[in-house]
From TrEMBL:
Identification of the protein by name: RsmB/NOP family class I SAM-dependent RNA methyltransferase
Keywords tagged on the record: Methyltransferase, RNA-binding, S-adenosyl-L-methionine, Transferase
Region spans: Disordered: 86-105
Gene3D superfamilies for this protein: Vaccinia Virus protein VP39
PROSITE patterns, sorted: SAM_MT_RSMB_NOP (PS51686)
Domain SAM-dependent MTase RsmB/NOP-type: residue ranges: 131-384
InterPro entries attached to this UniProt entry: MeTrfase_RsmB-F_NOP2_cat, MeTrfase_RsmB-F_NOP2_dom, RCMT, RsmB-like_ferredoxin, SAM-dependent_MTases_sf
Molecular function GO labels: RNA binding; RNA methyltransferase activity
Protein's organism: Paragemmobacter kunshanensis
Active site: 335
Length: 384
């Protein structure tokens, strides 16, 4: 495909996304209907689509319309490729007189939904604009080295021999940032045999905050695909139990745990598999820290949805607290930048549970390289 034809394909995919289809689904359907497209074409169309979703407001302004064509025209102008719109072959037609576009202003220039601007400004302070700008760019690829099986340096050497160049990342002792060969990661022996996993560096850093030690009984209460379950297993020899309100989300966990060489008990009834020394509550959240990877989430979030998430988060924290005895630890984690889901939830928990204390809390933003995350360590007092 020519670069112009790739732009035209991205326009078609984005039209479907704007009509309500998930981007991943729209891309798969386009791919199936476009047998002529090679892997380079598919990767480029995907990159344009996700760039346009991350920068939906600013590209719509630059491209004179919140349409597939407007977004891709905005992308082309933002990246100095407007000449792709020349109408030659399968390329999009040249811009018409109503498509001059304009420089985005205010929240649109930062691709921040209007209603969220005051909340994010209050949460991020002076970091607001730089963080929003960071969220306009694509996320790096990070690996977690399974330190229970291999050193970070040995994993780097092994990956390099298979064409994946990495650098050690400062956010976590297990973190590597992939600097070239990212598309080859899943074919490497290190990945297939569980010596490295794909995991954001800040996600790893949150797990590093947890006071884990050999022999502890640990529950991952919102385990999902098990990214943090396995990261915990890499830190100490634990009795690990995993639960998720949607058990199908844990479907890949046995295979991933098998690759990593660890045992994880999945359960529908986590109360029965206790007692625990530590419960990790990696709660469902706005995902505002990972909008680089899930840009559709940025535009789909509403005030109602945020309020509902906050209720769920508080309920999960209370449930976790009920499974911990004196001295037990509740690890609370979100991939959110919003204070309402982070510090405010911790403060409200401590009000509801007077016998508990906060031992540590840290927010990570994309300015440190990884996604936005929050982690808090809460410990139940020994009394009572
Ligand atoms: C942020 S994701 C977890 C990601 C996972 N820990 C990881 O590191 O890959 C939140 C998970 O919480 C689950 N969830 C939602 N409501 C829940 C509830 N009330 N109790 C337990 N899990 C819940 C969701 O199904 C989702 O898989």
């Amino acid at each position: 495909m020519t670069p112009g034809a790739r732009a035209a394909a991205a326009i078609a995919v984005l039209e479907r996304v704007l009509a309500g289809q998930a981007a991943e689904v729209a891309l798969v359907q386009w791919g199936r209907a476009s047998r002529f497209a090679g892997s380079g074409d598919r990767a480029m169309v995907r990159d344009i689509v996700f760039a346009a979703l991350r920068c939906r407001a600013s590209f719509a302004a630059l491209g004179a319309g919140l349409t597939g064509r407007g977004l891709v025209l905005g992308w082309a102008r933002a990246t100095g490729q407007e000449a792709l719109f020349d109408g030659a072959g399968h390329a999009p037609a040249p811009p018409g007189p109503t498509e001059a576009g304009a420089a985005p202003e205010g929240a649109a220039a930062l691709d921040c939904p209007d209603w969220l601007e005051p909340l994010l400004r209050a949460s991020l302070g002076a970091d607001f604009a730089p963080v929003m700008q960071a969220l306009q760019r694509r996320a790096p690829v990070f690996l977690r080295v399974n330190l229970a099986r291999v050193t970070r340096e040995a994993a780097q050497a092994e990956l390099a021999a298979e064409g994946v160049e990495t650098v050690a990342h400062g956010l976590a002792a297990s973190a590597l940032e992939v600097v070239s060969g990212a598309r080859k990661v899943q074919a490497t022996a290190a990945y297939r045999e569980g010596r490295v996993e794909l995991q954001d560096a800040a996600s790893q850093a949150v797990v590093e905050m947890l006071p884990l030690a050999d022999g502890m009984a640990v529950l991952d209460l919102c385990a999902g695909g098990g990214g943090k379950t396995l990261a915990m297993a890499g830190r100490a020899r634990l009795r690990l139990v995993a639960h998720d309100a949607e058990p199908r989300r844990m479907a890949d966990l046995p295979a991933r745990a098998g690759r990593a060489g660890v045992a994880v008990q999945r359960t529908d009834r986590p109360e029965r598999a206790g007692p625990y020394d530590l419960v990790l509550a990696d709660v469902p959240c706005s995902g505002s820290g990972s909008w680089r990877r899930d840009p559709e989430g940025k535009w789909a979030l509403t005030a109602e949805r945020l309020a509902a998430l906050r209720e769920v988060q508080a309920g999960i924290m209370d449930r976790a607290a009920g499974m911990l005895g004196p001295g037990g630890v509740l690890g609370y984690a979100t991939c959110s930048l919003l204070e309402a889901e982070n510090g405010a939830q911790v403060a409200a928990f401590l009000e509801r549970h007077p016998g508990w204390r906060l031992e540590a809390a840290r927010r990570f933003t994309p300015l440190e390289g990884g996604d936005g995350f929050f982690g808090a360590i809460l410990r139940r007092g020994e009394g009572r």
